[in-house]
Amino acid sequence: MTTGLLLISSLAICEAVARSVFPVPDVLNFNRIDFTPPGVFGGFDELAKEGAGGIDSSGFSYRERKPIRNLTTLWISDPDGVEVENTLNLYGFRGEPFEIQKTPNTTRVMLLGDSFVEGFGVGDADTIPQVLERAMGTAGVEVLNLGVGGIGLPEYARLASVAVPLLKPDVVVVVLYSNDFPARHRSDDYYRAPDFRARVSNPLQLRTLSLAKEVRSGVGPAPFYHRGPFPFFLPVPHLSNPFTHLPPHETIAHRLTEAMLAGRLNPMIPKATSTLEERLLAPLDRASAGYRYLAWLKHVVDRNGASLIAAYIPAHVTIGDHYREMWSEFGTAFVHESFTGPPFRQHQRDLTRIFTELEIPFVDTTSAIRDAEGRGRRLYHGYDSHMNPTGYSLVAGELHKAVETSLASRRRDSP
What angle do CA 147, 362, 373 make, to 5 degrees? Predict the structure, then answer.
């Protein structure tokens, strides 16, 4: 074999190996990290800064962070006996890989939301989108999990601005949780994401060449396998763990303190408990309910020919007093002896009014959850406060009814 043929053969083999080992997303600038504010999870910030490197998570901007691709993360809550892996795909979202271009004759359902949609606290098969997809049947139905832990209404609107025109779903479901309120204030330019232009990868470009560019730019290629698992929470001392700066208050139960210091329980929970009563009792007006974000979300969905559904999941402490007792161990001196009465269902009442005004179908899961818990079924982890597989399955069942109704309406209205 001549030198020229040997060189060509070697390059062809390198190219084949590169294409099989290092996949390229169809759209290069669409990734969950672009919708995750810095500092939400220490482990994420480490991965986004230097791949799998060890750095602190202080004060860097969105533009400095690298895409999250093909990773496995680890969600741990020792007091609840929870340690589960979350599989993230080539775009950094939870679950199986998906194509940007929807397959013809396929119904695509997109779920937006925070950690309850992403499915913290359960394995991949037990998230709301996965259970919903199985309930709808696998043939011709695709449910995309675009849940991003730690975000809120401004980020849902921002993500919809990019993802809805890009992925072209038939139905969009935004799942709201009690800690989404009051809504954070963001500028119009932030949540409308006006500058997004999809940067489509070139399938004809040599993968070996694009690999060299990625390495040189510091992004680093994504392997075909999932790296990890990497923990969400990092132990003290790390700037992402609040107890690195301020020691835990002595009123927090010792075993919970030890778990949070070790990164084996969400160290942000004490802050959440300290504002819990105020948030649950606050009436939601247009500003605090994020009316403009919801109205924009509806505008984006309508403009792209899809249908929008909204849903609400209540805080576990408003469902059963046993959850309140668990959260009292985080040291907050709660004023009310119970959070299960009508005053603590203010969100549900106000959101019903707002979604009626916006003409968005609304699924309030509160009654179904209260009924199930009243029959002795535990639907949440106690200290962690996310749902267990039974809880997520119940929510998926409630959404299934609404999605099927929406699809039936679309079929009737289609020419």
Answer: 75
pLDDT digits (tens, 9 = 90+) for 206-231: 666 666 666 666 566 777 788 888 88
Distance from C-alpha of 106 to C-alpha of 401, rounded to nearest angstrom: 19
> 146: which DSSP letter?
E
Q: Cβ(112)–Cβ(173) under 8 Å?
A: yes
Kindly list the distances between the CA atom of residue 222 and the CA atoms of 89, 214, 288, in Å, as whole numbers in the listed order.
10, 10, 40
pLDDT value for 245: 86
Q: Is-contact 74 231, C-beta < 8 A?
A: yes
Closest CA to 295 of 163, 160, 152: 160
User: Of all helices (H) and strands (E), which one includes residue 355?
Assistant: helix 346-358
Task: Return the minimum-mean-pLDDT range out of 4-8, 149-153, 281-285.
Answer: 4-8
Helices 389-413/128-136 angle, 10° precision: 50
Question: Coil, helix or strand for 84?
Answer: strand
Contact, 84 vs 93, CB < 8 A? no
CA 172/CA 142 separation, integer angstroms:
12
Domains of the chain: 15-413 (3.40.50.1110)
The two tokens of residue 54 are 């060890």
Q: DSSP secondary structure string, 374-403?
A: HTT---B-TTT-SB-HHHHHHHHHHHHHHH
Give residue 59's region: left, alpha or beta (phi > 0; psi -120 to 50).
left
Q: Is the distance from CB of 73 to CB of 123 less than 8 angstroms? A: no
**Rounded Cα–Cα distance for residues 128 and 119 (Å):** 7
Cβ distance 180 to 114 under 8 Å?
A: yes
Rounded Cα gap, residues 124 and 392, in angstroms: 12
